[in-house]
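Tokens for chain A. Residues wanted.
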């Protein structure tokens, strides 16, 4: 009975629901409901993007201010060890980003360098043939 009520309620929701309720059922009976969206369309991420696209400048500033304040509170509560770990991870990510950019730039430079050599060789060959060399 409860399963029917729950699945009926979840099916009426607009978004995907994947609910696990092991505490409502005897042990060993995993209750996993996968409910398909009743109406096709946006994912939750797309709805969030739509909502942000429609917000005013004041709402955006308020949202960003709230996010910054939560980040400051989180950092104020962290221990020295957690802070050091966070900074180390940031450093690793920036090194990795620089290495990836360097590799990408190297590939691009190699491509253009080889292309330029090819073009200049063809120009030299053309000039030589026109000059009768």
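Reply:
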């Amino acid at each position: 009975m409860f399963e029917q009520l729950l699945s009926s309620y979840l099916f009426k929701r607009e978004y995907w629901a994947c609910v696990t309720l092991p505490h409502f059922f005897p042990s060993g009976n995993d209750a996993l409901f996968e409910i398909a969206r009743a109406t096709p369309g946006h994912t939750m991420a797309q709805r969030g993007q739509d909502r942000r696209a429609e917000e005013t400048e004041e709402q955006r500033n308020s949202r960003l201010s709230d996010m910054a304040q939560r980040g400051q509170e989180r950092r104020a509560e962290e221990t020295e060890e957690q802070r050091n770990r966070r900074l180390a991870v940031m450093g690793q990510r920036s090194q990795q980003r620089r290495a990836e950019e360097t590799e990408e730039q190297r590939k691009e430079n190699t491509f253009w360098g080889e292309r330029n050599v090819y073009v200049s060789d063809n120009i030299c060959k053309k000039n030589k043939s026109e000059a009768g060399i």
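The chain is about 70% helix and 5% strand. Strands lie at 17-20, 32-35.
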